[in-house]
C-alpha cells in the first residue's frame, strides 16, 4: 500500500516538473520505477526534446527492440516532423509515398490517442482515412493548420473530431481561396474554448464566414486572439469571453462593428497597434472585471494623446492587477497616472514603454516621484522602457523615495543600450546593485537589446 502511495505522489511531482526537460533526463536514470513513470511524460510531445546530432544518430540508427512502445505515449503530433523524416533520409522519390504511409500508420492507429495535432503547410495526406483514425483522433483537444491545407482533410476531420478546445488557424496571404473545410471543422465542435486566427482577413467574405461560425460557440469561447479588424459584430455575441487579444494588421475602416459592443466578463485585454478610440470603447464596455491590460502601440508615425485611455482605465478597472502601457513623450499623462495609482489599489505590476524620440524629453523624474508617493502597497514590480537614456539622478531619487516600502523587482531597457551595450550602463548597474544591498531592490535586470515587441520586455520575471 505504501509503495502504491509513493508512486502516486511521484506521479503528481513529475506532472508539476514536466516542463523541466533538463531534469527529466536525469530522472530516467534513478531506477526502473522512475524510468517507467517519466518516459510516458517525456514522449507526450517529443518535438520539444532537444537532442544533439550524435544522440539522434544513436537513437534512430539502432535496431534493438526498444524497452517501451514510445509512440503509444505520443500525444502531440506535429506533421512537420513526419515531413522532415522524408527529407532526412536518402529515400528514392518513388518510395516516399509508401514510406510516409507506413510512418503515418505508426502514429495513427487503434493503439494511439493524439490530443494535439498540427498539420503543416500544403500537407495533402488524408489522415482521416487511415485505419484507426477515428479512435486515435476522436479525443483531439488542440488543432493547428494553415489555409492551404487540403480542404477535404479538414472536412474529414470534422466528422471525427468533435472535442477540440483550442484551435489555431493561419491564413496564407498567397492563398485567397475560401477553405470551407475549416468552417465545417469549427461548426462541428462541442466545447471550443480558445481560438487563434492569424492573417485571416485576406478576403472579407472568408473572414465573415469564419466569424459567423464562431458565433455558434458564443457560450463556450473564453479566449480569442485575432490579427485583424472584425468585419462583423461577432465579438458582441461572445458574452463569456474572458481574454481578448487583438493585433492591428489592416486599416480599421469599419468601426461600426464596435458600437454597442459589450464584453461583460472580460478579464484580460491585450492589444497591439489598435486605435486608441477602440481601446477606450473596449475598456468602457467591460463590467469592472479587467485584471490585465496590455496596450502596445507604435508612435513612429503619429502623435496620439493617450490620457483618454488612462482615464478609461481608472474609471472602469478598479480590480486591475497588471498594466502594460505605451505612450509618446506627452507629459500630460503623468497627473492621470497619479489618479490611476490611487484608484487601482490592486495593481501589482506596471510596465511603461515611453517612445520619447522627439526633441521634447519625457519627465521621468516627475513620474518617479509620483510612483514612489502614490503606488499602492501591492505594486512591487516595475519595468521601464525609453528610447532616450535614463538620468541616473532621477532613478536614484526613485530608489531613495522607495525606502520604508517592500523591495521592488525592476526591469530597465534603453533603446540606446542596443548600441552602447554594457559600457554606458555600468553606472546604472552599480546604482541598482547599491540599492539592492540596501534592501530597496529585490531583483533587477537591465536590457541590452533593442525592443522589437512588447513580448520582448514582458519575458522578465
Cα separation of the termini:
41 Å
The secondary structure category is alpha/beta
Percentage of β-strand residues: 15-25%
Q: Note poorly predicted spans.
A: none
Q: What's the architecture of the largest domain in CATH terms? A: Alpha-Beta Horseshoe
Number of strand elements: 14
**Average of per-residue pLDDT values:** 81
CATH class value of the largest domain: Alpha Beta
Spatial strand arrangement across the major sheet: 1-2-3-4-5-6-7-8-9-10-11-12-13-14
What fraction, in percent, of the residue positions are helical? Answer: 25-40%
Per the CATH scheme, the topology name of the largest domain is Leucine-rich repeat, LRR (right-handed beta-alpha superhelix)
Q: What is the tally of helical segments?
A: 17
Net shape: globular
Radius of gyration: 26 Å
Describe the largest sheet. Answer: 14 strands, parallel
Total discrete domains: 2
Q: Specify the CATH homologous superfamily of the largest domain.
A: Ribonuclease Inhibitor
Task: Explain this structure.
The protein has 461 residues and is an alpha/beta fold. Strand 9 (292-296), helix 12 (307-316) and strand 10 (322-328) form a beta-alpha-beta unit. It has 2 domains: 75-252, Leucine-rich repeat, LRR (right-handed beta-alpha superhelix); 266-461, Ribonuclease Inhibitor (Leucine-rich repeat, LRR (right-handed beta-alpha superhelix)), CATH 3.80.10.10. 28% of the residues are buried. It has 17 helices and 14 strands. The protein has a 14-stranded parallel sheet. The longest helix has 21 residues, at 417-437. Helices cover 38% and strands 16% of the residues.
Amino acid at each position: 500500500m505504501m509503495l502504491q502511495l509513493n508512486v502516486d505522489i511521484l506521479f503528481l511531482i513529475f506532472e508539476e516538473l514536466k516542463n523541466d526537460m533538463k531534469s527529466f533526463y536525469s530522472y530516467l536514470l534513478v531506477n526502473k520505477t522512475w524510468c517507467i513513470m517519466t518516459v510516458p511524460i517525456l514522449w507526450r510531445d517529443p518535438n520539444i526534446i532537444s537532442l544533439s546530432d550524435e544522440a539522434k544518430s544513436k537513437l534512430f540508427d539502432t535496431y534493438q527492440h526498444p524497452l517501451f512502445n514510445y509512440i503509444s505515449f505520443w500525444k502531440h503530433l506535429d506533421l512537420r516532423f513526419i515531413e522532415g523524416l522524408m527529407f532526412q533520409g536518402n529515400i528514392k522519390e518513388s518510395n516516399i509515398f509508401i514510406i510516409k504511409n507506413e510512418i503515418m500508420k505508426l502514429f495513427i492507429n487503434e493503439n494511439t490517442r493524439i490530443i494535439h495535432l498540427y498539420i503543416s503547410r500544403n500537407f495533402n495526406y488524408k489522415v482521416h482515412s487511415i485505419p484507426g483514425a477515428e479512435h486515435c483522433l476522436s479525443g483531439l483537444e488542440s488543432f493547428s493548420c494553415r489555409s492551404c491545407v487540403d480542404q477535404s482533410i479538414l472536412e474529414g476531420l470534422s466528422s471525427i473530431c468533435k472535442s477540440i478546445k483550442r484551435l489555431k488557424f493561419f491564413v496564407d496571404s498567397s492563398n485567397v481561396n475560401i477553405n470551407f473545410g475549416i468552417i465545417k471543422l469549427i461548426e462541428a465542435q462541442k466545447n471550443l474554448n480558445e481560438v487563434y486566427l492569424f492573417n485571416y482577413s485576406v478576403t472579407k467574405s472568408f473572414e465573415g464566414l469564419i466569424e459567423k461560425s464562431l458565433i455558434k460557440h458564443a457560450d463556450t469561447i473564453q479566449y480569442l486572439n485575432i490579427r485583424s479588424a472584425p468585419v462583423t459584430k461577432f465579438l458582441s455575441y461572445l458574452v463569456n469571453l474572458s481574454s481578448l487579444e487583438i493585433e492591428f494588421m489592416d486599416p480599421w475602416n469599419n468601426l461600426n462593428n464596435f458600437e454597442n459592443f459589450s464584453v461583460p466578463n472580460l478579464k484580460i485585454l491585450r492589444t497591439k497597434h489598435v486605435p486608441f478610440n477602440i481601446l477606450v470603447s473596449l475598456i468602457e464596455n467591460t463590467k469592472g472585471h479587467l485584471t490585465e491590460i496590455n496596450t502596445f502601440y507604435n508612435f513612429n508615425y503619429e502623435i496620439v494623446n493617450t490620457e483618454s485611455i488612462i482615464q478609461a482605465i481608472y474609471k472602469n478597472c478598479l480590480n486591475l492587477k497588471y498594466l502594460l502601457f505605451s505612450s509618446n513623450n506627452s507629459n500630460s499623462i503623468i497627473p492621470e497616472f497619479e489618479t490611476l495609482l490611487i484608484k487601482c489599489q490592486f495593481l501589482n505590476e506596471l510596465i511603461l514603454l515611453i517612445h520619447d524620440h522627439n526633441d521634447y524629453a519625457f519627465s521621468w523624474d516627475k513620474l518617479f516621484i509620483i510612483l514612489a508617493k502614490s503606488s499602492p502597497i501591492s505594486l512591487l514590480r516595475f519595468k521601464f522602457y525609453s528610447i532616450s537614456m535614463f538620468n541616473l539622478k532621477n532613478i536614484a531619487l526613485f530608489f531613495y523615495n522607495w525606502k520604508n516600502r517592500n523591495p521592488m523587482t525592476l526591469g530597465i531597457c534603453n533603446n540606446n543600450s542596443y548600441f552602447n551595450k554594457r559600457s554606458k550602463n555600468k553606472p546604472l548597474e552599480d546604482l541598482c546593485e547599491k540599492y539592492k544591498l540596501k534592501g530597496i531592490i529585490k531583483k533587477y535586470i537591465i536590457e541590452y537589446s533593442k525592443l522589437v515587441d512588447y513580448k520582448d520586455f514582458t519575458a522578465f520575471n
